[in-house]
Amino acid sequence: MKGIDHIPCSSWNSKLRTVATLVCCLVAAGCSSLPNEPVSGIKPPPAKPKSYDHVKTGSPYTINGRTYFPMSNEDAQNFVAVGTASWYGPHFHGEDTANGEYFDMYGMSGAHKTLPLPTLVRVTNLDNGRSALVRVNDRGPFVGDRIIDVSKSAAQELRFLDKGTAKVRIEALGIADPLPSDHPYSPSRQRIFANRQKTVQNEQQTLHNETKKVQNQKRGADQAFYVQVGAFHSRDKAKNLADRVHSAGKTHVRAGSKNGDSFHRVLVGPFPSPLGADIVLARLSNLGLKKSRIVSE
After folding, report:
1. What is the DSSP string of 74-105?
2. Would you state the pLDDT for residue 3?
3. What pLDDT, in 10s, does the model give residues 200-226?
4. Residue 136 to residue 112: CA distance in whole angstroms
5. 61-175 belongs to which CATH class?
6. Cβ atoms of residues 168 and 127 within 8 Å
7. Tens digit of pLDDT for each residue in 172-185?
8. Percent of the chain whose pLDDT exceeds 70
9. Predicted TM-score (pTM) above 0.85
10. Burial level of 175, CB count in 10 A (0-12/13-18/19+)?
């Protein structure tokens, strides 16, 4: 081509080989600078060892002539058993369990003779295949060949509440975590519960003293106070309500009339001052009887 010097093909080939050699050297140098192992991210901190300070194993104990030997944490690992389950509820609700927690029949808890407390177990009803996770925090059952007692709610979940017992398989899943300190059934709440019980006892004593004052007074000498729980045209309805609230104090069904309309009032009392009546009024209001009120006679 005019204006361009002719370059032999052999010279082009030589230049290409030189460029190719240089590229290979650069690639090799770059590869040699990479680490032999992949670079990892920031390693997470080591897992905090699980604490077992809240676990209670207990010493061997004897019930009805039979001695039971509680398992250690290690012995309870992979524990599996098949047998009869039963349930317990109202008579033990709010009572202490064997590890110091409070029994809640509306929670998912249970009792076992030897597992560490608390242990998380899976209970499977072999009659219907239903399973539930249960926190074992109590000892028992000690009736026949039963291997576990579960709470009322757990029995409902497993669908044997009405039947009372069921054939089940229990599998230990490990030690359950401690309850939070502010949990209603945590052992640390015992002081709060005790204080609440003391308050109730003081209220009951105050109510008793107020009632005694009325009983010692001569009829008509002083004014007395009552809590009126309801008023009905039907005496039977009034009597039924009086029977329902008799635990709050002495109840009365009194007939009355207004503008020719007869009715029956349900009264709790008497109290010589509004104080005793007010305690009962608060208690009845908490039971849902919001229309209760203090009256005087």
Report:
1. HHHTT-EEEEEEEE--GGGTT-B-TTSPBP-T
2. 44
3. 566 666 655 655 555 555 444 567 888
4. 7
5. mainly beta
6. no
7. 999 998 877 666 66
8. 68
9. no
10. buried
CA–CA separation, 154 vs 211, rounded Å?
Answer: 43
Task: For domain 206-296, say whether CATH 3.20.190.10 is its number.
Answer: no
Distance CA 146, CA 166 (A): 9
CB of 146 within 8 A of CB of 86? yes
Kindly list the domain boundaries of the chain, sorted by start residue. 61-175, 206-296
CB contact at 8 A, 111 and 141: yes
Q: What's the Cα-to-Cα distance from 46 to each of 38, 49, 51, 168, rounded to whole Å? A: 21, 9, 15, 38
Instruction: Round to whole Å and give the CA distance between 218 and 120.
Output: 63
Q: Is 246 helix (H, G, I), strand (E, B) or coil?
A: helix
* Structural contact between residues 82 and 95, judged by C-beta atoms closer than 8 angstroms: no
